[in-house]
Amino acid sequence: MAPFSTHLSHRYNISLNEFRLLMAIGRTGASASHELAEHTGVNAMSVSRAVATLERNGRIKVETDPSNRRRKVLRLTEEGARLYEVMRPQTQLVADYLVDGLPEADIAKLDELLGKLIARLEAQDEQGRSLFIESTKPAEDQDA
């Protein structure tokens, strides 16, 4: 996150979580807050704060989903789309730097391993609970 902190955060007055949400909405299109929380790994309270700030700064708009009146859809505004397009090349520079000079076989292996890790982190039990969260709970008798 050092390139974000060094090059983008202050220049565009955007926090890390706001950046994550803006980039996710820009990439995936209209999304609900809970979908963004799952997609980015940011907890619901932090997503809520970032959504409020992005909306207040005119970067996203929050609309009621016409097919489900309880669902709120988040979309980039014109300003949000502009900012997404400005910051997207910087994220590509970071990604390119990380793999620059690696042999194709290593990149393929990294992709394979990351795919396995992501699948493991996203795995759910029969009740739809995260196996990762359930498996990493502290013991009930452990002090808080």
CATH domain topology of the largest domain: Arc Repressor Mutant, subunit A
The CATH architecture of the largest domain can be named as Orthogonal Bundle
Structural class: mainly alpha
Lateral strand order in the biggest sheet: 1-2
> How do the SSEs run, as a string of H and E?
HHHHEEHHH
Fraction of residues in helix: 55-70%
The CATH fourth-level homologous superfamily of the largest domain? Winged helix-like DNA-binding domain superfamily/Winged helix DNA-binding domain
Please describe the biggest sheet, giving its number of strands, its sense, and whether it closes into a barrel: 2 strands, antiparallel
Any idea what the radius of gyration is? 18 Å
Give the termini distance in whole angstroms: 30 Å
List low-confidence stretches. Answer: none
Name of the top-level CATH class of the largest domain: Mainly Alpha
Protein name: MarR family transcriptional regulator
Domain HTH marR-type: 1-119
Keywords: DNA-binding, Transcription, Transcription regulation
GO molecular function, one term: DNA-binding transcription factor activity
Task: Provide tags for this entry.
mainly alpha, Arc Repressor Mutant, subunit A, 2 domains, two-stranded antiparallel ribbon, 7 helices, 2 strands, 63% helix, 10% strand, globular
Care to describe what's here?
- This protein has 144 residues and is mainly alpha-helical.
- It has two domains: 2-100, Arc Repressor Mutant, subunit A, CATH 1.10.10.10; 102-136.
- The protein is built from seven helices and two strands; from the N terminus they run H-H-H-H-E-E-H-H-H.
- The protein has helices spanning 2-12, 16-28, 33-40, 44-56, 78-99, 104-122, 131-135, and strands spanning 60-65, 68-76.
- Strands 1-2 form a two-stranded antiparallel ribbon.
- The chain is globular and about 45 Å long.
- The model has no long low-confidence stretch (mean pLDDT 90).
- InterPro entries: HTH_MarR-typ (IPR000835), WH-like_DNA-bd_sf (IPR036388), WH_DNA-bd_sf (IPR036390).
- One of its GO terms (molecular function) is DNA binding.
- This is MarR family transcriptional regulator.
- Keywords: DNA-binding, Transcription, Transcription regulation.
